[in-house]
Amino acid sequence: MASAVAIAAALLTGAVGAAEAKTYKFGYNIYVGFMPYGWMAQNGILEKWAKKYGVDIEVIQVNDYVGGINQFTAGELDGMAVASMDGLTIPAASGVDTTIMLAGDFSNGNDGILSKKVSDIKSLKGETIHLFELTVSHYLLSRALELNGMSLRDVKTVNITDADIAPAYLGSDELVHAVAWNPMLLQMETKVEGSKRIFDSASTPEEIVDVMLMHTKTVEEHPEVAKAFVGAWYETMQIMSKGGFVGEAMIADLADASGGTVPEYKAQLDSTKMYYDPAEALDLMNSKRHQKTWDFVRTFSFDVGLFGEAATSADFIGIEFPDGTVLGDKDNIQLRINSSFTEMAVKGEL
């Protein structure tokens, strides 16, 4: 009898252990700065770091960017690669306490405004502009207008998805002005005779930053997951940045995975500032200029209604920075910039 009880207890303990074992799922979609996530998973780097920290991590390519963010918001993904603004306006604005634990790159010309008719932003006054509304394209247009003494009230915007904007711009004479991101931006710019890039994100450096989100609860309860992921990322960045046969082979893999050619992928990289060195990412995450950018982002987000009907000001959501500064409501912090794992990478402590 005692033996049977012991066996049952052992089986129960094993079952509980198996139930507790969790695979942490991180999502990304096809974008120049996100492709290394898939590569580091497919080439054993992530697995190596995950084993070091005793965790199981899976990286999943999602076909629908917003759908992936919604999966993260619903708890179906533990991490999601996004443009930083989208972390604020979707999960954080939905009441999901969200942490940015890695800054991968910023758009340095990857997002732009094209026109078949005019050659400067001020000439857009009274014009109709097609873009994917309530995304970074909308934010970029807002900033371009603001920097030229104008506002969104000076133009009319028409919503069009990222999947439809390139074919529409290429195929319709009625679509004259558009805002898009790569690879669509390059296609639209180069394939339409007379198309001019009149503004791009190189004029707003470090404002459209691509980051990895995690649920704050997971970061706090299982920091080893973030450590493994960040460690794998910076090992991958070393390979990608060093050139030579290995680096070029990686670039070829990334280009193929993104559905393009090596020259096309490199053209997109040229307008993307990758944070190959964790010290550069740490400098951004800890900086006052980053806090200023978030002030721009939250103001835009509130102005276009992305915080929902309950929000009465841009202060509705609290954004916490590494130095303890909070923009917005300190009693409703839903977005946190956590630079501790990047700092560990800088110090060689991962």
UniProtKB/TrEMBL annotation:
Q: Does the keyword Amino-acid biosynthesis apply?
A: no
GO CC, sorted alphabetically, is: periplasmic space
Residues of the SsuA/THI5-like domain: 51-239
Q: Where in the cell is it found?
A: Periplasm
UniProt entry keywords in alphabetical sequence: Kinase, Signal, Transferase
Q: Which family does it belong to?
A: Belongs to the bacterial solute-binding protein SsuA/TauA family.
Q: Kindly provide the name given to this protein in its UniProt entry.
A: Lipid kinase
